[in-house]
UniProtKB/TrEMBL annotation:
GO cellular component, one term: nucleus
InterPro entries (alphabetical): ZnF_BED_domain_contain
SUPFAM superfamilies linked: Hermes dimerisation domain
Protein name: Uncharacterized protein
Principal location listed in the UniProt entry: nucleus
Keyword Thylakoid: no
Entry annotated with the keyword Zinc-finger: yes
Amino acid sequence: DTATSNLGKHVLSCNEAAQLANMAKFLAGSTYTREKLRWLILVWIVRNNLPFSIVDTEQFRAIILLFNPQADIPSHTTITNDIEILFAMAQKRLIKKFAVRIFFFLLFCPLISW
């Protein structure tokens, strides 16, 4: 198959030093932070209804470490704790929002003649 043999020739012809220089240039502009990675993983898991344990899989870890070998990958326990904190924060905001609406409803409802 010429497709794979061409790919193999291309890989062999690539200059490793040039590849490392390109990688260093790319990483210099990196905006990685531990907190940002945790947040992005959390959003990805919640929005796609994924199991928390996906972060513990070898394949997931390999993908993250491919882009940043020093990345601090959160465990499923950390993700669980983060989701519980996020849920509690959202719950408080909703309760506060509804409390204000109920207050105004109760305040102005007697003034409305049906």
